[in-house]
Amino acid sequence: MTTAPLSPAAPVLRTAYQQSVADYWNNEKDPVNLSLGDVDGLYHHHYGLGDYDPSVLEGPEDTRDARIIEELHRLESAQADTLLDHLGPIAPEHRLLDAGCGRGGSSIMANARFGCQVDGVSISQAQVDFANGQAHKRGVDDKVRYHFRNMLDTGFPTGAFQGIWNNESTMYVDLFQLFSEHARQLAFGGRYVVITGCYNDVTGGRSKAVSRIDEHYTCNIHPRSAYFKAMAANGLVPINVVDLTSATIPYWELRAQSSLATGVEDPFLTAYREGSFHYLLIAADRV
């Protein structure tokens, strides 16, 4: 696999905020991410979709938490599958970019499905090293590679990718800068897909629950309207918009009943139920 080098004049971490985000994820060892990934070696950094099997809450108490963890992981892998479903026709000769790749689970799933080259980028060196280790263990490191790069300026060639996605990572960056870079990297007619939480413009700014989510993850959740404004400004035309809010609530209800609960479950459930927060999938074509 060949990759374009980063220019020495373009450091990966450009601002104090980016450094703080990198520090957060370099030091993060949350069991809610690691224990779920231990189920089958696919380590995600996102939430889940679909109804959970209520039987996991029944049965022997000593295995209850293990059952819940397996079910949470099934739901988060289903979320990644939903995102990949919207990338359109991808052939083995194509190339994909996982922007804000976390520990890399979605990239490995994409390679397994499409057989193509997948690059992931993160500003967390710890995540990049972990993800590359997982690709090596699976024997796919000839096709799946993770890079310590800034998704606002990756250094990859113009028009190199048929598909790009962000899975719950856009709340860390300026959307106009991000979509400008994605539009540069996408081939004409290529597809961009994002799954994200965004606050509801109709309710008039961030609710208390949404502000608590921001604080928990050191992020800056955008309003729903900002995604469409930034896409329109950068030649990205939505082809599918899917409201996943109701489909993600069961994941949070189950997680709240597990040993992995972090305390952020209540703000998520409150925000979703009161309508101040939406969980959206947007797929857009590069024109």
UniProtKB/TrEMBL annotation:
One of its GO terms (molecular function) is magnesium ion binding. InterPro entries: Erg6_SMT_methyltransf (IPR050447), GPPMT_Stmyces (IPR049645), Methyltransf_25 (IPR041698), SAM-dependent_MTases_sf (IPR029063). PANTHER family: GERANYL DIPHOSPHATE 2-C-METHYLTRANSFERASE, ZGC:194242. This is SAM-dependent methyltransferase. Residues 97-190 form the Methyltransferase domain. GO terms for biological process: methylation. The keyword Membrane does not apply.
